[in-house]
Specification:
198 residues, alpha+beta, seven-stranded antiparallel beta sheet, 5 helices, globular
Amino acid sequence: MDAQEIVRKYGLDPPPKHDEFLRQLRSLPGYPHNWLYSPAPPRDLLQGDIVGPIDYVLTSEDNERGILAGDVMLISNTCDAVPQQSRFALIAPVTELEIYTKPEGQDDEAWLNHLMALRKFEIDSYYYLPSWFGRPDAFADFSRITHLPSSHLQTSFAANEVHRSASLSSKGHLLLLAKLAYFLVRLEAGEVQRQTEA
């Protein structure tokens, strides 16, 4: 599903002022992306913030686990990212496109189409992060959401050991909520067979 359809159906009933935003989404990736980020983020961490370096555990396709250090997107609701509300904060790894490699065996045209779909926010599990403040293009990967103690996140941020490189604008946050809702709670395909109640 394309980005404007996701926002229209899952964007928490956006008011008419978001009509312009929907037109902007239809013109991606040609539209300037400065609407995605907040020019002046507040002091506290917010849902959708890009922070790092964060140590987190990931599992490979071979079921091997390793600790990586890098940027992540804060997925938890802003209220749940503080220790007083929740012991753990959900995060999604951020991958820079310049190190995102083509799968073995995929032809060049299919790979270019994949990258274009990513930049148009059309891949369900990816949230595209266009270059910002000197940082290269990247994406947050919802399919690899993991967690870390919220106390560690807040303490590291307060001690300046973890830095926020970007914060989403209201439009960027709306798109994040819509894509998360679609990714996590979209209806199953009609072919899926489930046992009915006895």
